[in-house]
Design goal:
- The protein is mainly beta.
- It is built from one helix and eight strands; from the N terminus they run βαβββββββ.
- Strands 1, 2, 4, 5, 6 and 7 form a six-stranded antiparallel beta sheet that branches. A two-stranded antiparallel ribbon has the order 3-8.
- Strand 4 and strand 5 form a beta hairpin.
């Protein structure tokens, strides 16, 4: 493994596609050839709420809001987010995001990922869902 790697997050292909309209996700871990770090970029169109959530078996994550505003659902609690907020999330906490009126852009930073995967999919149970 080389001692360094660079990649522009916006040049990585969107991995979300049609599965979640209004949400883009770009995952840089494989491009960085990192043993211990995962860096991802998520972009949510204005007022888009993720219908899906996830947790992890082992991986702790931190999310940095780089543009816009919104909310994050952490288990059953909603937390307001604004630009430059950082949210650390323990592996077992179920999380999902919702963009505000100007959209939401988040950088996710994750730790070591087990070879057989780590993510656990869940439904986002927004408390104010109709």
């Amino acid at each position: 493994m080389p001692g360094f790697a660079t990649i522009n997050l916006l040049e990585i292909e969107d991995s979300v596609g049609d599965r979640a309209p209004g949400i883009e996700g770009r995952f840089a871990r494989k491009y960085l050839d990192s043993r211990d770090l995962g860096i991802s970029h998520f972009r949510y169109d204005a007022n888009v709420r993720s219908p899906m959530a996830h947790s992890h078996r082992e991986q702790e994550e931190a999310y940095v809001v780089v543009a816009g505003s919104g909310r994050v659902l952490l288990d059953d609690e909603c937390v307001d987010l604004r630009q430059w907020d950082v949210v650390r999330v323990a592996p077992e906490v179920v999380r999902a995001f919702e963009a505000g009126p100007d959209g939401l852009e988040v950088i996710a930073v994750g730790g070591p990922k087990p070879g057989d995967g780590d993510g656990v999919r869940a439904t986002a149970n927004w408390p104010d869902a109709a």
